């Protein structure tokens, strides 16, 4: 029996619609996001989920409450999204207008350049990877864990597990989930973005 790890992206927010950069800004899901969570809830009917983890942001809490109603969930800080510092709440055009030099530096090296007042990306990535490894190491062999989190966090984990999948091409549509099996120290894809 494999450990099942279900990755679920939080429901849509108004910032998603407005294509704003945000990670630490604590916004709520919108009406579309609520419907997306209800879609995921229907997909999980009849499945046993032993543990539910969320990031520290309320959009993941709201999503978990809709998907897994009347269930307890735990906050796992390693699931937090990367913060964009002074770019939080701005769209690409606004960032380019206000921070033209910095924006070009980030476009040229999105993993190496640190936006103003942001955390270096490598620190963020290491926090996610080490937290995920610790989770897997302490999860019993016959259990299932739902991780309700953010697209950036999901990309870090899935790209680390499956390096042949390009980081920016890893998709998880809101309203879908990805399931990864862990057995005999090997990760394999059960369901991808469905």
Describe what this molecule looks like in 3D:
By secondary structure, this protein is of the alpha/beta class. The chain contains seven helices and eight strands; from the N terminus they run βαβαβαββαααβαββ. It has helices at residues 14-17, 31-43, 58-67, 92-98, 100-108, 121-137, 151-161; strands at 3-9, 20-21, 51-54, 74-75, 90-91, 144-149, 177-183, 186-191. A six-stranded mixed β-sheet has the order 4-3-6-1-7-8. A two-stranded antiparallel sheet has the order 2-5. The two termini are 22 Å apart. The model has no long low-confidence stretch (mean pLDDT 96).
The fraction of residues in strands falls at 15-25%
Percent helix, as a range, is: 25-40%
DSSP helical segment count: 7
Uncertain runs are none
Structural class: alpha/beta
Distance between the termini: 22 Å
What is the quaternary state of this protein?
Answer: single chain
Strand order of the largest sheet: 4-3-6-1-7-8
From the alpha carbons, calculate the radius of gyration and give it in angstroms.
17 Å
- Taken in chain order, the helices and strands follow as EHEHEHEEHHHEHEE
Q: For the report, how would you describe the main beta sheet?
A: 6 strands, mixed
- Estimate the global geometry from the Cα principal axes: globular
What is the averaged pLDDT score?
96
Tell me the total number of β-strands. Answer: 8
């Amino acid at each position: 029996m494999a450990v099942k790890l279900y990755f679920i992206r939080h429901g849509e927010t108004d910032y998603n619609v407005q294509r704003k950069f945000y990670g630490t800004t604590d916004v709520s899901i919108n009406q579309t996001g609520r419907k997306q969570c209800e879609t995921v809830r229907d997909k999980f009917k009849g499945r046993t989920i032993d543990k539910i983890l969320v990031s520290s942001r309320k959009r993941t809490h709201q999503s978990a409450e809709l998907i897994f109603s009347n269930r307890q969930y735990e906050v796992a800080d390693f699931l937090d999204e990367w913060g964009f510092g002074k770019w939080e709440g701005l769209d690409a055009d606004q960032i380019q207008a206000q921070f033209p030099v910095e924006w070009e530096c980030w476009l040229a090296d999105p993993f190496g350049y640190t936006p103003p007042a942001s955390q270096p990306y490598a620190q963020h990535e290491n926090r996610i990877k080490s937290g995920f490894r610790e989770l897997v190491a302490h999860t019993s062999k016959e259990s299932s864990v739902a991780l309700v989190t953010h697209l950036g966090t999901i990309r870090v984990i899935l790209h680390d597990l499956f390096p042949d999948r390009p980081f920016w091409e890893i998709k998880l549509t809101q309203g879908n989930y990805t399931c990864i099996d862990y057995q005999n120290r090997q990760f394999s894809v059960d369901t991808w973005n469905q």
